[in-house]
Design brief:
With 203 residues, the protein is α/β, with parallel strands linked by helices. The chain has four helices and eleven strands, in the order E-E-E-E-E-H-E-E-H-E-H-E-E-H-E. Helix 2 links the parallel strand 7 and strand 8. The longest helix has 11 residues.
Length: 203
């Protein structure tokens, strides 16, 4: 379901109140903003870096007025965001886009790899508050590129769910791609809903 506050597309200036380094390439920026605090998992915001660019970023958490975005350093704009500190300001428009359809019960499978875990982390935290039975599969190329492992473990424990972590090189968890793990699980179990997000496979 789309959620568009009346002034979602109006640019607002926000001040960063907290930063967290999720892994060497991904940094989370936290700020307060009333409209974006109403975002649902799967939505995104447009982030304006003064004098440089405006880029779309997935919302990685939103509650009340507090919002976070998790930024992978891949270019000039994201590198500028990585360099920001508490007290710095950026422009925000949103929330925009269609969020995930949230189920309230049944068996749910969440499968994510790399930066695809950013919106899925937000989704998992919402589902953990429902009566859905959650299985969370998360993967990365290496241990150093993993993120949110402790947060996912905490939420699946609260929801009495399960989690499996994979790395392509076997440096943490199972040595395989997370999609292989999902295929094995789907051959044995049925789920009422499957959520997935991640990078496309390189040809």
């Amino acid at each position: 379901m789309s959620v568009y506050p009346i002034d979602a597309n109006r640019l607002r200036i926000v001040r960063i109140k907290e930063t967290r380094q999720e892994n060497p390439e991904v940094k989370t920026l936290v700020f307060d903003e009333e409209n974006c605090g109403k975002a649902v998992p799967g939505q995104f915001v447009m982030v304006w870096i003064p004098g440089l660019d405006e880029i779309p970023m997935s919302v990685s958490c939103a509650s009340l007025n507090s919002v976070s975005i998790s930024v992978e350093k891949v270019g000039q704009a994201t590198e500028r965001l990585h360099g920001m500190k508490v007290g710095d300001t950026v422009g925000i428009r949103g929330p925009l886009g269609n969020g995930f359809s949230l189920v309230k019960k049944g068996k749910v499978l969440i499968v994510g790899g790399g930066t695809g875990l950013i919106p899925l982390m937000f989704l998992g935290e919402k589902l953990a508050k429902s009566s859905a039975k959650m299985t969370f599969l998360m993967g990365a190329k290496t241990k150093g590129k993993l993120m949110f492992v402790d947060r996912v473990e905490s939420l699946v424990n609260r929801a009495h769910g399960k989690m499996t972590v994979t790395t392509d090189d076997g440096s943490y968890g199972r040595k395989c791609m997370v999609t292989e793990c999902a295929e094995e699980l789907l051959a044995k179990e049925k789920f009422d809903m499957i959520y997935t997000c991640g990078p496309e496979v390189n040809a």
